[in-house]
Amino acid sequence: MKIRAFVRAISLAMPLVLACWMMVVDARVTTDADEDAPFQVRFSAPDSSAAGEIVTLLDTGRRRIASFFDRPFIEPVTVEICPDRAAFTATFPPEWGLEETQCWMVATGVADRLTILSPRVWREQACEHDPDDLQHVEGILIHELVHVYHGQSNPTRDFAGAEELGWFLEGLAVYVSGQLDDGHIAPAQEALELGLAPESLEAAWSGKYRYGVCGSLVHYLDATCGRRRLTEMLGSTSQQQLLEIAGLTELELLASWRKFVAGSE
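^ that's the sequence the OP posted. Answer follows.
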């Protein structure tokens, strides 16, 4: 499945979906720059309690991401809490051909929108996710919020046509959200020890170790290229453009990353 199916959320009005929302609440947070930047949260009645908890976690995520990049979000974000998987799946455009979403898919994010399947129904309608594990839920929400931030800094806004950058899109979200260290993903070190390290950047976003590998690749870029250049990479729409900012070839990046993971750098 293309990377856009993992991280792209619908940007057009969906009357069928929006008709199911029974409540709308504006949750306002303030950035370090004292700018009013609301989340507009849409949810149905059964998720009124979950909405408050989700906003609290997103507030934490917004502050973490703005601090990481040393600049706030550019625009407000609409958050949709879907009451069931059918409603969640309906938020994906017909052209994607997704008649149903896979059970592990529970959230998506682009420049102006974050959509999440209510954790209230994860036990029955999702897999690989524990709604009672607050750290895990927080990681997922902040992961998607990084995609939102990234989308606001990228000309595509929804990463359409940037499939070759899947490793960077997902790696950035893993790294900035803190998922790289939370123990929920298979680590890059293990992949390296088992001889499963990728031979290409495209291959990095595949298999059991994809999240750990891609997250550590972005960690390496941050550690060696610096935060300023990493931030500049947010605007990349091709792998070549990103590598030019990094000042590395694909082979150089992978070779240096392996040493980095092995602890030689």
